[in-house]
Amino acid sequence: MYHYTNAAGFLGIREAKALWASDIRLLNDYLEVGYFFDNVSKVLATDSRFTKPAALLKKAPPPYAWQFVASFSEKRDLLSQWRAYTGSQGFAIGFSRQHILSVADKQEFTFRSVNYGPEETAAKIAVQIEAGMSTSEYGSWLQNEGDIGATQIAQQIFLGLLLREAVYHKHPSFAEEREWRLCKHVERLSGEIKYRSGARGIIPYVEFALEPMSTQFANLAVEVVLYPGGRSVRRGAHGGTQFLR
Q1: Where are the beta strands (DSSP E) in 53-146?
Q2: Separation of alpha carbons 3 and 72, rounded Å
């Protein structure tokens, strides 16, 4: 699995032995969450089973928690990924999929492939809505729909379930990316959240440790692909590869 990054990110990953999963609201990928929730609106409007959840979510407030995301691709040399993530001096760091999967659960991350099919997106949305309808919080709201507290709690239950799924769905036009995402659902006031500077200002992020203490970083980064740019870029990237080794 290939994580595309610029030179600064490459050095940071090597030194910290960690990836930064960023708040998706401040990334370009945030537009894709809008795509998912457009589909949520369609499912709620067309499935007669979901009349009550549709009413509940019609005026829902912002969620109390959000998704933090780090992206990977199955493709080791994809132009759209170079352009989106690396700038003029970039690297695609190849990691062991099995290793990431093995340490993700221990850190309360999920690691899944992205879906690009509208039919599967609609099906997954239905599953999450049904899960929300099975909760005691939703039952309490049904008992007293006029209670503000019960309404807000039930809304957050549904939003949390849908947000956890939203990050794993993209428009079919992005299918060439063959993307996988490493995600964590984090409360907005969590002490786990750190901050970095980025193109969009101050970016909240959480760390994902790549290794247990006994593992060498070189065993995880099984390949480094250099940005296919000009001669000076390749020369600079070669220095990064030597440093990694």
Answers
A1: 65-73, 90-95, 110-113
A2: 5
